[in-house]
Amino acid sequence: MLLGEAKTPDEMRLYAIGDVHGCDDLLAALHDRIDQDLALRPIEDHRIIHLGDYIDRGPNSAAVIERLVALSAKDDRVLCLRGNHESMFLDFLGDPMEGGQPFLRNGGMETLASYGASLGRGFASMRDLIGLVYETLAILPVEHRQFIARLPASFRFGDFFFCHAGIRPGVPLDEQDTHDLTWIREPFLSSNADLGAVVIHGHTPVKTPDVRPNRINIDTGAVLGGPLTCIVLEGRDYRFL
Predict the structure, then answer these.
(1) pLDDT tens readout for residues 82-122
(2) Buried b (16+ CB within 10 A) or exposed e, 20-44
(3) How far from 195 is each of 128, 146, 183, 188, CA to CA, in Å?
(4) Coil, strand or helix: which one is 166?
(5) Taking the model in full, what pTM does it have?
(6) CB atoms < 10 A from the CB of 3, how many?
(7) CA atoms within 13 A on the CB side of 112
(8) Is 181 helix (H, G, I), strand (E, B) or coil?
(9) Distances 40 to 36, 50, 162 between C-alpha atoms, Å
C-alpha cells in the first residue's frame, strides 16, 4: 500500500506529532492548532498520535510527560508511542550499569534536571549512577514512570502504520521487533518497497517533512530549532500543521 492509495478509516481524521524532546511550549501550541483545526473542520472521529521521544535534550521533559499523562487520561483519542529515548530512560532506571551512560550522554541530564535532580557531581562510577537512580526514583512521579513503561511501540489505523523510528522491510507489520520500531534507520530509510502500509515515523531529523511513497518522516528537529510538525491524514489526503 502506497501513498495516494492508502486511506484512513471512514469518518476518522488522524493527527500525528513528531519528536518533542522536551519542547513543551511547542507541544502546547501544536495541540492548540489541532483544537482549532477540529473546530473549523468537525469530523465524527479522530486520533492524536504522538510518535515518541518526549524527553531528553530539550528544557522541559517533565512538563511534556505531565501534559501527555493528563491529555491521555482525559481523552482516549490521545495516543502515545514509545521512542528510543523513553527506552533509554527505562534502561537507566532498571540497569544503571548498562543503561546509565548511554542515557546521560544522549540528553538524559536535561531530563533529570527538569525533574529537579542534583547534577553537580560526576557520574563516572557505578556507585554514582546507582545513587542517581535512587534520587530519580524518589522525585519521578509514579504516574510518569508508569506512563513511560506502558507506552506501546506501534499503532495502525486503516492503511497507515505509526511508529517512532520505522520498520524492518520484509518483516510483516504484526511481527516487527520493538527495538526496530524504536531505533531502526537502515535499511528502512533507503527502502522503496511496499511496506504493507504507509509508515508515519520520526527519529531521524529532517528540515522539512520527508514524504516518500511508502513512508513519511515528520521529525523536523524541534529541539534543534526546527518546527514541531503534525501531519493530518484524512481519507487519502494529507496536510501539515
Answers:
(1) 999 999 999 999 999 899 999 999 999 999 999 999 876 66
(2) bbbbbebbeebbeebeebeeeeeee
(3) 45, 32, 17, 10
(4) coil
(5) 0.97
(6) 16
(7) 26
(8) helix
(9) 6, 22, 25
Question: Do 144 and 126 meet the contact criterion of CB atoms below 8 Å apart?
Answer: no
Grid-cell match 525533574, residue found = 115
Report the amino acid identity of residue 103.
Answer: F
Cell 506512563, residue located = 147
Distance of CA 49 to the CA centre of its chain: 9
Q: And the C-alpha cell for 98? A: 548498562
List Cα–Cα distances, 206 to 50, 162, 186, 223, in angstroms. 17, 18, 15, 12
DSSP 108: I
What b/e sequence results for 181-210 when a residue is b if at least 16 CB atoms lie within 10 Å of its CB, and e otherwise? Answer: bbbbeeebbebeeebbbbbbbbbbbeeebb
* DSSP-based three-state secondary structure for 42: coil
| Helix-helix angle 84-94:126-139, to 10 degrees | 110
Q: If pLDDT is split at 50, 70 and 90, which confidence band does 230 have? A: very high
In angstroms, the CA 239 to CA 222 distance is 18
Which triple of cell numbers denotes residue 54? 518526549
The pLDDT assigned to 122 comes to 64
